[in-house]
Amino acid sequence: SAPGRFADYFVICGLDTETGLEPDELSGENFEQTPLRRTFKSKVLARYPENVEWNPFDQDAVGMLCMPKGLAFKTQADSREPQFHSFIITREDGSRTFGFSLTFFEEVTSKQICSAMQTLYHMHNAEYDILHTPPTNDKESCSSTGDCNGTSVSKLQRFNSYDISRDTLYVSKCICLITPMSFMKACKKVLEQLHQAVTSPQPPPLPLESYIYNILYEVPLPPAGRSLKFSGVYGPIVCQRPSTSELPLFDFPVKEVFELLGVENVVQLFTCALLEFQILLYSQ
């Protein structure tokens, strides 16, 4: 039986430099996009512990849900703010496990990956020239559209690219907690503080491994109807578990639902739920 720990796994997903850049077919690869706008396969790079008997690790599910759009590449000219999201893995027996992921960008230090990205851009630009160069006898079309002089919007867009001699290449990476209960706010704080410790010029008070070990082995699940306070890297973290007589745990801000959908849509969704209509949310 599960020992009632706050978290079961700590997971890292990202770029596997050994396998290199593999197109991510599941995310709907579009080779007409510039290489920086394409998505590539991410991998589970590490997890700790290796396995727990009450919650077997599903590598394929965790890897896909941690980075549902695969790897993303950017340069120093792009915004690289960390993004947080959560997910649920439902097993065949109906049991659930919860995941919380913080995705951020780190500099690519592998020369092979940088060279591969540069090669993809050379190939993309060569194909672009072949597809978009007008016939030599179509001078009127050239003069009217400006394509011959390279001044069209579409032609300029292709130069929003990557130059290995000029640009710094960044790739997305993800740190994740797999937990038996959906303590979203607490998990978000844990991951944000771990990320802050990695990117801070000053090292944290203790090695990062000690904080990860603590969250996995020394922080228990709070009993029903009780709250729990434990130490993060830079400050305390609090979570509260409802009692059996209260509504089930829902640790997500309802305000965001209204901000994303609007009041009228939320009322309509609530009406549909009360009338037991089927509801499908479609999103990118």
Automatic annotation (TrEMBL):
<dbReference type="InterPro" id="IPR047278">
    <property type="entry name" value="DEN5A/B"/>
</dbReference>
<dbReference type="InterPro" id="IPR043153">
    <property type="entry name" value="DENN_C"/>
</dbReference>
<protein>
    <submittedName>
        <fullName>DEN5A protein</fullName>
    </submittedName>
</protein>
<dbReference type="GO" id="GO:0005829">
    <property type="term" value="C:cytosol"/>
</dbReference>
<dbReference type="InterPro" id="IPR037516">
    <property type="entry name" value="Tripartite_DENN"/>
</dbReference>
<dbReference type="GO" id="GO:0031267">
    <property type="term" value="F:small GTPase binding"/>
</dbReference>
<dbReference type="GO" id="GO:0005085">
    <property type="term" value="F:guanyl-nucleotide exchange factor activity"/>
</dbReference>
<feature type="domain" description="UDENN">
    <location>
        <begin position="24"/>
        <end position="284"/>
    </location>
</feature>
<dbReference type="GO" id="GO:0042147">
    <property type="term" value="P:retrograde transport, endosome to Golgi"/>
</dbReference>
<keyword id="KW-0344">Guanine-nucleotide releasing factor</keyword>
<dbReference type="Pfam" id="PF02141">
    <property type="entry name" value="DENN"/>
</dbReference>
<dbReference type="Pfam" id="PF03456">
    <property type="entry name" value="uDENN"/>
</dbReference>
<dbReference type="InterPro" id="IPR005113">
    <property type="entry name" value="uDENN_dom"/>
</dbReference>
<dbReference type="InterPro" id="IPR001194">
    <property type="entry name" value="cDENN_dom"/>
</dbReference>
<dbReference type="GO" id="GO:0005802">
    <property type="term" value="C:trans-Golgi network"/>
</dbReference>
